[in-house]
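Support request from a user on the community tier.

User writes: "When I paste my structure tokens into the form, the page sometimes reloads and wipes my input. The last time it worked, I copied everything first. Here is what I submitted, just in case something in the input itself triggers the reload:"
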């Protein structure tokens, strides 16, 4: 039976969740995702898990932060003057913002986590899943020829 190898295009169903079961992504309500193994468009650990799978096969993989979106890095949380935000809208907690000419060590984009008066905001440049262990259920559906 043929199994998936690097360079193969496959259709897969993916259900990713945090350790507490909170979903983070899923293809289960729609068509399977089409992935070419080795292109680097998904997490490398998920590509590795798909290699060797045959159509119809299912697998569950647990990804620690180092194999998912990395550790949470406190140094990516920075106070930024509002004048350095490229957005015209009033910043609000949860808003993704771009920073013009960020200070050394500060991210060029991040999510506003706190308003600091009318002069500055606190932003977090970490990926929203940084520091999380994730669990993925994979199902190889078919090869794309």
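"...and here is what came back when it finally went through:"
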């Amino acid at each position: 039976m043929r199994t998936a190898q690097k360079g193969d295009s496959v259709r897969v169903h993916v259900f990713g969740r945090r350790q507490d079961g909170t979903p983070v992504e899923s293809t289960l309500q729609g068509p399977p995702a089409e992935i070419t193994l080795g292109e680097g468009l998904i997490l490398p650990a998920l590509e590795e898990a798909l290699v060797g799978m045959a159509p119809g096969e299912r697998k569950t993989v647990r990804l620690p932060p180092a194999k998912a979106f990395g550790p949470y890095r406190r140094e990516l949380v920075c106070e930024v003057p509002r004048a350095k935000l490229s957005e015209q809208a009033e910043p609000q907690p949860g808003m993704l913002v771009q920073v013009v000419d960020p200070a050394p060590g500060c991210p060029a984009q991040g999510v506003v986590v706190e308003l600091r008066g009318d002069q500055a905001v606190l932003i977090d440049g970490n990926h929203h899943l940084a520091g999380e262990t994730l669990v993925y259920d994979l199902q190889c559906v078919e090869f794309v020829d």
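Agent notes: The reload is a front-end session timeout and is unrelated to the input. Helices lie at 44-50. The longest strand covers residues 9-18. Escalated to web team.
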